[in-house]
């Protein structure tokens, strides 16, 4: 049985009966005390009819009020719940019922898996969201979960972005049709402009507006920082880190973006310190471990880096970590091991997606430069958004010195190339 001090979950809302506070996505929502009391009555009897007599006795302490007053108060609650207001059903002349869909448990479980930020987590999340969508095809939360999982799979290059764009937008459109363009759905759409369309300007404009609307959300700062990193706007990306930390310092993606920022600004000692701190907070995170190994590598601490890459790779269910480890081995002089890993990864390519940009970096480290540039062509065909970090990624430093790089860059960033040409 849930104690009064434990928050009650209602869809995306976290409701504290002890403090009379409501949060959604880390943002506190105002609801006047009487309306909160009425909501509490409904929460304590889910799926059951709360007649007017019970509602008045418990929410108004027995003070007689009209049914109209009760209706107005319940209307406030429904308005606060937004797209979830339909969970409160009015039975004329009798009272109200809070009916939480059967899919709610699946939705909550799906987001639990989603927040693990690994391949297995996203696979489990997708199963939960798809099952919830089958139970209730009008449940926008299920479609939002499906679309957001597609987006994160693309973000972690678990599948080709080219193949995930259409299913993302299809599920996203169904979510919008079911519950309107909510703030969360608009944030996903803005990030999709970056991941799938490589439209940095539009992604930035939409995220800046979302940040104004909800300045206490760490997620918008994190995603906007990714856009700035891709655009070589490192100082602006760094300026987003303090407000993100203030909003939710324990959010795992903050550990990722903080490490990337320090790696891309070549502050490798700071990247090491950041990763060590965040490994204490997120000891099972494969991505934080890989960033730690990468920071040690670029700081010249190869022996330590090799150990950390081995730990990250042993735990990893994300191919990009094994690709990065193989690139390091080639660079550090372990060519035979790197070749063995590359052969194994190539065999797995029949059933598993390998991001071509990361394959190119591995091939370049092996000295197979023509093959590396062929992989970069493949990355362009697969619409890999990782190419957007070509200009800032320290792993691509040697590749950028190749005479063929400038032509590739002009194709990855056509707008920048056009602007440079017109300036001349």
Q: What's the topology here?
A:
Blueprint: E1 8-10, E2 13-16, E3 21-24, E4 27-29, H1 33-43, E5 49-51, H2 52-59, H3 67-81, E6 88-91, E7 95-98, H4 103-114, H5 119-135, H6 140-155, H7 161-179, H8 183-195, H9 200-213, H10 218-230, H11 234-239, H12 241-248, H13 252-264, H14 268-281, H15 286-298, H16 302-315, H17 319-331, H18 335-348, H19 356-365, H20 369-381, H21 397-400, H22 405-412, H23 414-423
Antiparallel strand pairs: 1-2, 2-3, 3-4, 5-7, 6-7
Structure description:
The protein is mostly helical and 424 residues long. Among the domains are: 8-98, Arc Repressor Mutant, subunit A (Orthogonal Bundle), CATH 1.10.10.10; 331-424. Helix content is 66%, strand content 6%. The protein has helices at residues 33-43, 52-59, 67-81, 103-114, 119-135, 140-155, 161-179, 183-195, 200-213, 218-230, 234-239, 241-248, 252-264, 268-281, 286-298, 302-315, 319-331, 335-348, 356-365, 369-381, 397-400, 405-412, 414-423; strands spanning 8-10, 13-16, 21-24, 27-29, 49-51, 88-91, 95-98. The longest helix has 19 residues, at 161-179.
């Amino acid at each position: 049985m849930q104690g009064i001090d434990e928050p009650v979950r209602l869809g995306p809302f976290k409701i504290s009966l002890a403090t009379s506070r409501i949060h959604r996505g880390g943002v506190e929502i105002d609801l006047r005390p009487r309306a909160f009391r009425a909501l509490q009555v409904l929460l304590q009897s889910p799926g059951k009819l709360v007649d007017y007599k019970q509602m008045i006795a418990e929410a108004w302490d027995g003070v007689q009020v009209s049914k109209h007053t009760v209706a107005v108060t319940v209307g406030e609650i429904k308005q606060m719940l937004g797209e979830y207001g339909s969970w409160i059903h009015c039975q004329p002349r009798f009272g109200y019922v809070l009916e939480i869909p059967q899919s709610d448990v699946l939705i909550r479980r799906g987001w639990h898996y989603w927040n693990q930020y690994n391949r297995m987590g996203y696979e489990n999340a997708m199963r939960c969201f798809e099952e919830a969508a089958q139970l209730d095809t009008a449940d926008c939360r299920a479609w939002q979960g499906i679309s957001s999982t597609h987006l994160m799979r693309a973000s972690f290059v678990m599948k080709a972005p080219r193949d995930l764009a259409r299913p993302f937008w299809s599920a996203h459109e169904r979510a919008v049709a079911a519950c309107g363009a909510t703030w969360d759905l608009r944030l996903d759409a803005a990030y999709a402009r970056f991941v799938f369309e490589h439209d940095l300007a539009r992604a930035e404009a939409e995220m800046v507006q979302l940040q104004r609307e909800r300045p206490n959300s760490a997620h918008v700062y994190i995603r906007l920082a990714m856009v700035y990193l891709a655009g070589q706007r490192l100082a602006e990306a760094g300026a987003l880190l303090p407000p993100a930390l203030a909003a939710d310092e324990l959010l795992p993606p903050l550990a990722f973006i903080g490490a990337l920022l320090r790696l891309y600004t070549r502050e490798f000692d700071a990247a090491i310190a950041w990763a060590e701190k965040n490994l204490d907070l997120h000891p099972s995170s494969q991505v934080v471990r890989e960033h730690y190994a990468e920071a040690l590598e670029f700081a010249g601490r190869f022996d330590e880096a090799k150990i950390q890459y081995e730990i990250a790779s042993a735990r990893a269910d994300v191919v990009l970590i094994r690709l990065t480890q193989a690139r390091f081995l080639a660079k550090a002089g372990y060519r035979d091991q790197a070749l063995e890993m590359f052969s194994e990864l190539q065999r797995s390519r029949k059933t598993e997606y390998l991001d071509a940009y990361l394959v190119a970096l591995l091939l370049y480290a092996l000295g197979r430069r023509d093959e590396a540039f062929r992989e970069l062509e493949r990355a362009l065909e697969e619409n890999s958004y990782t190419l957007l970090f070509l200009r800032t990624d320290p792993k691509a430093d040697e590749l950028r010195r190749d005479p063929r790089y400038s032509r590739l860059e002009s194709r990855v960033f056509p707008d920048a190339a056009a602007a440079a040409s017109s300036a001349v």
